[in-house]
Design goal:
Oligomer: single chain
Order of helices and strands: HEHEEHEHEHHEHHHEEH
CATH topology of the largest domain: Rossmann fold
Distance between the termini: 94 Å
Shape: elongated
Structural class: alpha/beta
CATH superfamily of the largest domain: Response regulator
């Protein structure tokens, strides 16, 4: 208990008014680049207040079925698209219509008092997560959003890795013309250009759960792959049950040396 006015004055000097603001920005607020489309329904304000406690900043626009400008990256990139509403069919239809431009964006539906079937419908239509403002505590909502973003980062890393491998093998063949199995084989052979790789090693890498199954079709895949090589490249087999992809010009230079 504060005894007199001098102590009140001293207390006031040491404590900022900011410390008494209940809704001050929280250090746990997420700093992702977000865009929010919200339906103008009776729960609009409730959803906005909920999201303001999760994100540092939320550019918002009314949800319209023909909205496209707000989704564009011409005004800057963003990582998360939030869509708030009470009509899962409309939200899902909108998501499907704009799927091409939302390929690399995390898509999160924000609802209120939703049933499990409705949440499942939203997830099946392409949303990465569904947050219910009544049934999801704030710490859980933050954790689930972070998990979605981490998952997206992992997917992007894999996509970049695959694209790098496609670029690396493009001078050897046309990757788009390869079947999935041929692509896997070419990825291994091109990564080890000029080196001998055993059949067992290739089968274990391509199908670790059942390498023997792929081994039975390996010769057919290699034969088809040979026909798709660009001029100047060849795949040869040796008597030790191995294969090697090499460039003919490099082979000739080695022999002459």
């Amino acid at each position: 208990m504060i005894a007199d006015r001098s102590e009140v004055f001293s207390f006031g000097k040491n404590v900022e008014i900011y410390d008494f603001i209940v809704d001050k920005p929280n250090d746990t607020s997420l700093k992702y680049n977000v865009r929010y489309l919200s339906s103008n329904d009776s729960f609009n304000i409730d959803r906005s207040e909920f999201l303001e406690k999760i994100f540092v900043e939320i550019p918002t626009r009314p949800f319209s079925d023909d909205e496209s400008y707000f989704l564009s990256r011409s005004q800057g990139d963003y990582e998360i698209l939030l869509i708030g509403g009470i009509d899962p069919l409309r939200m899902s239809r909108f998501l499907r219509a704009n799927k091409p431009i939302l390929n690399r964006v995390a898509k999160i539906a924000v609802v209120r008092n939703s049933s499990p079937p409705r949440r499942a419908r939203l997830l099946n239509c392409g949303f990465d997560e569904v947050i219910d403002t009544v049934k999801t505590p704030l710490p859980e909502a933050r954790a689930r959003i972070i998990a979605v973003m981490n998952r997206n980062l992992s997917i992007r890393a894999v996509e970049r890795s695959v694209q790098e491998e496609i670029d690396a093998m493009a001078h050897i063949c046309t990757p788009a013309n390869l079947t999935p199995r041929e692509f896997d084989l070419m990825r291994i052979l091109s990564r080890n250009l000029g080196q001998t790789i055993s059949v067992n090693a290739m089968c274990r890498e391509i199908d670790p759960r059942d390498p023997a199954s792929f081994k039975r079709s390996l010769k057919v895949n290699i034969s088809n792959l040979r026909k798709k090589l660009r001029p100047g490249y060849r795949i040869e087999a040796d008597f030790q049950n191995s294969y090697r992809l090499f460039q003919l010009s490099a082979q000739i230079t080695t022999v002459e040396a």
